[in-house]
Amino acid sequence: MALPIPGKPVRGSKTGQPIMALLDLLGRSWAMGIIWHLYTGPSTFRRLQEYCESISPTTLNKRLKELKDCHLIERTLEGYALTKSGEELFELIEPLGSWAKIWAKNFK
User: Fold this and answer.
1) What pLDDT sits at residue 54?
2) In this structure, what DSSP letter does residue 15 have?
3) Any residues with CB less than 8 A from the CB of 70 and at least 6 apart, and which?
4) In this predicted model, what pLDDT tens digit does every residue of 8-29 receive, in sequence order?
5) Of 5, 32, 82, 102, which sits 20 to 30 A from 94 (CA to CA)?
6) What is the pLDDT of residue 102?
7) The HTH hxlR-type domain covers which part of the protein (predicted)?
């Protein structure tokens, strides 16, 4: 799967609207989980792999590369960390996590 780039065709949009490019990226396995985990602070590859439970090293490497190429994470001395853009994105999607907990109660 190619890196979703705004302005280029992406999953769900032939014109590559920026929101669709972002949703394509975030819809990939463990992309949001990695961002969610890194909001608590930098993490090593091994800690990310433990957090992501069943993720293969190949998939984790691919997802980390995609998130780095999209300027959402960076490699630091402490491990992988969110960039300023990554932190801003987390702050936008975090309320969805809170809403989802309330929504999930409808299924009990």
Assistant:
1) 84
2) S
3) 3, 4, 25
4) 989 888 988 999 999 999 999 9
5) 5
6) 92
7) 17-108
Residue 6, helix vs strand vs coil? coil
Rg (CA), the chain: 15
Return the C-alpha torsion angle 50, 102, 94, 76, nearest 10.
Answer: -10
Distances (CA, A) of 4 to 7, 21, 23, 76: 9, 5, 9, 24
Of 27, 4, 25, nearest to 15 by C-alpha is: 4
The answer to whether residues 73 and 67 touch, using CB atoms and an 8 Å cutoff, is yes
- Do residues 14 and 4 lie in contact, with contact meaning Cβ atoms separated by under 8 Å? no
| pLDDT value of residue 49 | 94
Q: Enumerate domains of the chain plus CATH numbers.
A: 32-94 (1.10.10.10)
What's the pLDDT tens digit per position in 34-73?
Answer: 999 999 999 999 999 999 988 999 999 999 999 999 999 9
With vertex at residue 106, the alpha carbon angle to CA 28 and CA 12, rounded to the nearest 5 degrees, is 25
Residue 73: Cβ within 10 Å count:
25
Residue recorded with tokens 């792999």: 49
